[in-house]
Design brief:
The chain has 305 residues and is of the alpha/beta class. The chain is built from twelve helices and seven strands. The strands form two sheets. The chain has a five-stranded parallel β-sheet with strand order 2-1-3-6-7, sandwiched between helices. The structure holds flavin mononucleotide.
């Protein structure tokens, strides 16, 4: 019997649907036993968000300052054959509940175990995954594989639809005019193909990384221009997050003005800076072909530098 632990968190239920799809083949397999652990932040994050609440999680997300979570139910000393960590991205970083799990004592469950990550995000996950990989390795986990499901609409349209979704709770606000926000139902449904590959890989004792096999089935797509784009945005995010944190922690009224300034910056960045930056990043990706080839290779392989 192969024992699999699945650690997950989802606000809207999107990532839960992805996890259910990937693990559907496990449910039919009698040689596999699955334990689900939902990470529960204390208190829960609001959904839909107000614009201020949305931006108030920004500094802690960027700086990796964990929120409080409820104690987990699984035994961290149990010898699981595979640990699956399903997470989403908040401001180019792992979401706060996932950061909290990775920083908690329960993270020792990954020690000596293969760890598969499943990311469900809009489209920018590269730098967040660097942080997650490092924390997995620090806990003694082995990087087994990474699956990424993202919104496939173009970047600017995707920003618009996800903003509407996060602030109104409506995934399909204007059917026919705007595409539905987030990851397509088809992509979520098709993620079941990875479950079969995982079962097959687990049949071997001490399986190594299965990233190459997963990639042959479309597990990871690295968009060249986002490599430059993310690095540029992250550098700016670090400055803004430190500026806000000087006025106090999440929820502190003293920092509300700075949080709202950041909100203004975010809207300006989306409307004015993002289109220019997108063009510059596409140009940079074309001009720096050798550098980009090396980086695509690195991000696709799910390894740590
Ligand atoms: C506060 C916040 C910040 C986000 N920042 C990013 C981001 O930087 N990159 C990205 O690809 N998606 C980002 N997203 C989208 C999430 O990764 C995710 O796809 C969405 O919130 C749905 O996830 P769920 O399963 O938790 O409902 C953000 C979402 C929230 C709520």
């Amino acid at each position: 019997m192969k024992k699999i632990l699945i650690i997950h968190y989802s606000q809207t239920g999107q990532l839960t649907d992805i996890v259910k799809s990937v693990t559907a083949p496990f449910e039919k397999d009698e040689t596999v036993s699955v334990t689900y652990e939902e990470i529960k932040p204390k208190p829960a994050f609001p959904f839909p968000w107000s614009a201020t609440q949305f931006c108030d999680v920004f500094p802690e997300s960027v700086q990796g300052i964990p929120c409080e979570i409820e104690p987990v139910h699984f035994d961290p000393n149990e010898d699981y054959d595979l640990v699956i960590l399903a997470y989403q991205i908040w401001f180019l970083a792992p979401s706060l509940p996932i950061t909290a799990f990775l920083e908690s004592g329960a993270a020792k469950v990954m020690k000596g175990r293969p760890v598969l990550t499943i990311i469900g995000c809009r489209n920018m996950w590269l730098l967040a995954h660097e942080t997650v990989k490092q924390k997995i390795v620090k806990s003694g986990g082995r990087l087994f594989g990474n699956l990424v499901l993202a919104d496939r609409t173009n970047n600017l349209l995707g920003v618009l639809t996800i903003t509407i979704w996060m602030l109104s709770g409506k995934k399909k606000l204007v059917p026919g005019l705007l595409p539905a926000a987030g990851i397509s139902d088809q992509d979520i449904h098709d993620a079941a193909r990875f479950g079969d590959l995982l079962i097959h890989a687990l049949e071997k004792n001490e399986p190594g990384s299965i990233q190459e096999t997963l990639n042959e089935h479309g597990a990871v797509t690295v968009v060249p221009q986002y490599i430059f784009f993310e690095k540029r945005i992250q550098a700016i995010f670090k400055i803004w997050s430190r500026f806000i944190l000087k006025k106090g922690n999440r929820g502190n009224p003293a920092r509300k003005f700075r949080v709202q300034l950041f909100l203004g910056y975010l809207f300006a960045a989306i409307a004015v800076i993002a289109p220019v930056s997108t063009v510059l990043s596409i140009l940079a990706a074309k001009l720096k072909k050798d550098e980009i080839k090396h980086e695509i290779d690195y991000f696709s392989k799910n390894i740590v530098d």
